[in-house]
């Protein structure tokens, strides 16, 4: 019995002395992938769906496209973190795409005069006092964003301003990392950003 215990302890000691050393080589760190498409490409799905209008519709109808807010904080909640700028980009892409499809899109943010500065000039404003008092708009395209774990669910609708009836509706998913990569800490323009966990 003593012989068995002695042989067992020797074999265990030998195993601990010849154990494999941990692999200290570092594997290359892969940068997190961006979404496969741009916001503009995801929004084209919305444009196509919105063009399926129910009921009578005049080709001369004047349409305004508004910003898209988070569904749980209308008027105040824009997408933050990796989605920063997403609300406005959806609006801008819809304006471009629907104009290209032949719809009569109205730029209601247009001022009466061109504003010149040392480095830029503009006619667009969100200051209501600089805009026309009366906007002749027949339909409004508006919508909401709902954040999920992997994507924003975007719901859009075209609403008749005379009777508030929805004439067309659309929805799509836009990945969270469509604007920026999905790494937890990022540096952009000299600032460090930490995304949500």
Order of helices and strands: HHEHEEEEEEEE
Radius of gyration: 28 Å
- Spans of at least 5 consecutive residues whose pLDDT stays below 50 are none
CATH class: Alpha Beta
Q: From the helix content, strand content and strand pairing, which structural class follows?
A: alpha/beta
| Number of DSSP helical runs | 3
Count of distinct structural domains: 1
**What is the number of strand segments?**
9
Write the layout of secondary structure elements.
Layout: H1 2-17, H2 39-50, E1 62-70, H3 86-100, E2 104-105, E3 110-116, E4 121-124, E5 139-147, E6 151-160, E7 166-175, E8 185-188, E9 191-194
Parallel strand pairs: 1-2, 1-5
Antiparallel strand pairs: 3-4, 5-6, 6-7, 8-9
Helix pairs in contact: 2-3
Tag the structure with descriptive keywords.
197 residues; alpha/beta; Rossmann fold; five-stranded mixed beta sheet; two-stranded antiparallel ribbon; 3 helices; 22% helix; 30% strand; elongated
How would you describe what is shown here?
- The structure is a single chain.
- With 197 residues, this protein is of the alpha/beta class.
- It has one domain (34-114, 122-178): Rossmann fold (3-Layer(aba) Sandwich), CATH 3.40.50.
- It contains three helices and nine strands; from the N terminus they run ααβαββββββββ.
- It has helices at residues 2-17, 39-50, 86-100, and strands at residues 62-70, 104-105, 110-116, 121-124, 139-147, 151-160, 166-175, 185-188, 191-194.
- Strands 2-1-5-6-7 form a five-stranded mixed β-sheet. Strands 3-4 form a two-stranded antiparallel ribbon.
- It is elongated and about 100 Å long.
